[in-house]
Amino acid sequence: MYFRLKDIEYKIESCSVRFDLVPSNQNLKVYIDVDAKTDSDAIDFELSEIHLYHNNGFEIGGKSLRKLAGKKFEWDKKTNRLGEEAGTLYVLEHEDVTSGTIEILDIDKEKIHIKWSGYANVYWNDEFGKNVPFETEFETEIPAIPKYKVINGMEKTKAKLDRNTELELLNFDDVLNETNRCREMWKNNDREAWQKYDATLNLKIIHKGVEYSGQAIYKGDAIHCEMRIDENCPVKIKIIRTTIDTTFGKFNFYVVCE
C-alpha cells in the first residue's frame, strides 16, 4: 500500500471503503477514504499529512459487488453529473480532485484492492498548486452496506428514521455558524482553522412517543463526531459521517438507526 503526492511518498495510516445504494435506481455508490502521513524531515510540516476521500460518493452502477473486479471509472472535471464534487483532497484545506481514475484491481468476499490516481488542487506553492498529481493503492475490508438516512440540515432539521423513530437536530444553526467561523479563519490564512473546529449538535430522539436526548460532538473535525446518546434510549443512533457543501445548499448528516 502506498500514497504518492507528486514526488512525496506517504505511508497509509488508515483506509476504508463504504458502499451504499442510490435510492433512485438501487445502483451501487462507493465512498473511499484514505489517510496518509510522512515522517520525513525533508517535507514541510504542512504537507506531512494527507486525506483523500469522496464526500458525496461515486456512483459506479450495477447492483452486485462481485462484478466490480477489473472495473475502471474515470472523470475529467471536479464535479460529477449531479454537480457534486467528484473527490476531495485535504492537505491544507479541503480542495477539489480535478480529475481521476479509480480502478478495482481485485475483490473477493472479504477484501477489495483499489488504485486511485488523478490530479488535485493543493494551493501550497508554485510546485504544489493546481492539478498536482497523486496516486494511491490499497487493500481494505469490505463492510456491510448500511441502511441510513441523510438529513440535509440546510433543508430540514427533523426526519423520520423508521416507523417508530424520529430525529431532530436542535441547534443546527450553531453548527453552521461554527463552520462559517472556521471557513472565514481559513480565508484569513489561519492554516490550522479546521483543527479548531468545535461544535456540539444537540439531538432529540423520539421513539414510540418517548423523547430521549443525545449529542454529536465535533472536535477538530467537521466530518466525524463522537456520539453521546441517553443510555435509556432503546435504539442506537449514530451519525457516521457529515458532509458540507454550502455552495450547493448541502449540510448532510448520514444517520444510522439500529
Commentary on this structure:
With 258 residues, the chain is mostly beta strands. Helices cover 6% and strands 51% of the residues. The protein has one helix and 18 strands. The protein has one helix spanning 172-187; strands at residues 2-5, 8-21, 28-37, 49-53, 58-59, 72-75, 88-90, 94-107, 111-120, 132-141, 148-152, 158-162, 165-169, 198-207, 210-219, 226-229, 237-245, 250-257. The strands form three sheets. It has an eight-stranded antiparallel beta barrel.
Helix fraction, binned, reads under 10%
Based on secondary structure, the structural category is: mainly beta
Average pLDDT for all residues: 89
Order of helices and strands: EEEEEEEEEEEEEHEEEEE
- Sheet with most strands: strand arrangement: 1-2-3-4-7-8-9-10
Show unreliable segments: none
Radius of gyration: 19 Å
**Shape, please?**
globular
Distance between the termini: 34 Å
What is the total tally of β strands? 18
**Total number of helical segments?**
1
Strand % is: over 45%
Biggest sheet, in brief? 8 strands, antiparallel, barrel
Summarize the SSE layout with pairings.
Elements: E1 2-5, E2 8-21, E3 28-37, E4 49-53, E5 58-59, E6 72-75, E7 88-90, E8 94-107, E9 111-120, E10 132-141, E11 148-152, E12 158-162, E13 165-169, H1 172-187, E14 198-207, E15 210-219, E16 226-229, E17 237-245, E18 250-257
Characteristics:
258 residues; mainly beta; 8-stranded antiparallel beta barrel; 5-stranded antiparallel beta sheet; 1 helix
